[in-house]
Design brief:
The protein has 2 helices and 5 strands; from the N terminus they run βββββαα. It is an alpha+beta fold and 115 residues long. The chain starts with 7 loop residues before the first strand and ends with a helix. The mean pLDDT is 93.
């Protein structure tokens, strides 16, 4: 667990070494306050590195990289941005149509920034 930020191994590390949603092997999987998640998958034989970020009920966004170094830097850079976005959204997803509509530009900005 990262004591400074509150991020910790997702499911106590049980997902590490398994196949991820993008077809790579999960090499890093961290969660924050039960509703934010970053999963890093890799397959060195294919020069494949991906990070999928999620906010429960709101967002699941994969990103792809050529190198482990790029992916690792992006993983760390996304943490504070994901925390900031998550703090602006209702926990678990939109509570009304208006809630969902208000979140649209916030989600779009995040996806554009981290594409």
């Amino acid at each position: 667990m990262d004591q400074d930020t509150g991020w910790s191994d997702y499911e106590a590390g049980a997902t590490l070494g398994g196949e991820g949603s993008q077809g790579g092997i999960v090499v890093r999987d961290e969660g924050y306050r039960g509703n934010l998640r970053l999963t890093y998958e890799a397959d060195e034989e294919r020069s494949f590195h991906s990070i999928t970020c999620g906010i429960a009920g709101w967002l699941r966004h994969p990103r792809f990289f050529y190198t482990a170094e790029e992916a690792t830097r992006a993983f760390e850079a996304m943490k504070p941005a994901l925390e900031e976005l998550g703090a602006k959204l209702s926990e678990g997803g939109p509570r009304s149509t208006a809630d969902g509509q208000a979140a649209g530009p916030l989600l779009a900005d995040f996806v554009v920034r981290f594409s």
